[in-house]
Amino acid sequence: MASSQDEFLSPEEAARATRHAITSELPFSIRRFDRESHTNEKIAIADVEAFNVLTITYKTANDLYEKDKKHLGKLMQMVQSSVSMHYKDTCCNPERPLQHWIATLYVTAGDDDRHEQDQARDRYHKALQPMRNPNNWELWLVRYDEAASYAQKNGVVRVSSLNAIIKDFVTAVTKVAENWTSNFLDYGRDDPRMTRKEIMRKLRVQMTNKYPNRLQLRSNTKYSASFLTIEDASIDVDGEANTIVGARGTPLTLRIARYLSSGVNGL
Q1: pLDDT at position 214, please?
Q2: Are 239 and 160 contained in the same domain?
Q3: Which of 109, 126, 151 is where one domain is finished?
Q4: Which top-level group of life is the source organism from (predicted)?
Q5: Same-domain status, 97 and 225
Q6: CB neighbourhood size of 88 (10 A)
Q7: d(CA 235, CA 241)
């Protein structure tokens, strides 16, 4: 009970004194439970706040995971639809992760790709053998175009640079088209619109104008373009006319045989 002195206290002080008197009269265990309840309440509030933070963090991470999972699914579908059936069966096990697919494909198909790239590079360099006979410029140009296109398709680094392409091309044709080479290097190669196809077109125009009769002869001949004729062999590598005995003293028939035995790949 509050003492008689409470009547001289302010209302707030009287309330505190009353609570103190009541609490003092309670057993110790009840007073301890009251203090622990207050502490536990603070702990519970802190736990709720921590739980809320963790929930938000988890939700954010889960959203990112679901987004990545969706993208990986699309990527796996793309891989399955783009590789051959052989690679799909041997390298794309549905029970394995995408990383395993990529690693297996790299080992299995990577060697094949590198081998094909090496073949394309060799074919390109072979096609760049200098044009020896101006009368066969069409055949040489077709083979060059096929080899260069194949090299580009297979990622040969040499054909990714226009400057390298120009250097290779003019080196191969300068002997039979010296004037064209000089004019092209002076006025053509710096054209921002220049491409490999445009270089070929310019040479084709030059050679067509310079050897018009040769085109008519080729259209009437019964031989395939892959074979040489007497007219082809009657011009030596320097473009000099031959008689029955070549300019270097070699009989014409022997020179033809040697030329044919070397194969038209040497053009």
Answers
A1: 54
A2: yes
A3: 109
A4: Eukaryota
A5: no
A6: 16
A7: 5
Of the candidates 218, 198, 194, the one whose C-alpha atom is nearest the C-alpha of residue 133 is 218
Highest mean pLDDT among 1-10, 166-175, 228-237 belongs to 166-175
Averaged pLDDT for residues 5-34 = 53
Close Cβ partners of 228 (under 8 Å, ≥ 6 residues apart) = 136, 256, 259, 260, 264
Residues 25 and 104 in one domain: no
Sign of the CA dihedral with 198 first, then 201, 202, and 203 last: positive
Spatial distance between the Cα atoms of 257 and 127, rounded to a whole number of angstroms: 22
Which two structure tokens, joined as six digits, stand for 106? 């790299």
Are 134 and 230 found together in one domain? yes
Same domain, 104 and 129: no
Please give the average per-residue pLDDT across 122-127, as a whole number: 94
Q: How many domains does the chain fold into?
A: 3
Q: Which domain holds residue 134?
A: 116-266
Q: Are residues 87 and 71 in the same domain?
A: no
CA distance 32 to 207: 109
Residues 167 and 133 in one domain: yes
Same structural domain, 30 and 95:
no
The model carries a pTM of: 0.44
DSSP state of 176: T
Find out whether 136 and 176 touch, Cβ atoms under 8 Å: no
> Both tokens of residue 17?
């004194």
Nearest to 228 by CA among 215, 216, 218, 237: 218
CA dist 158 and 197 (Å) reads 16
- What is d(CA 173, CA 185) in angstroms, rounded to the nearest whole number? 13
- Does residue 27 carry a pLDDT above 80? no
| Residue pLDDT, tens place only, 64-118 | 888 888 888 888 888 778 777 877 788 888 888 888 888 887 777 766 677 788 8
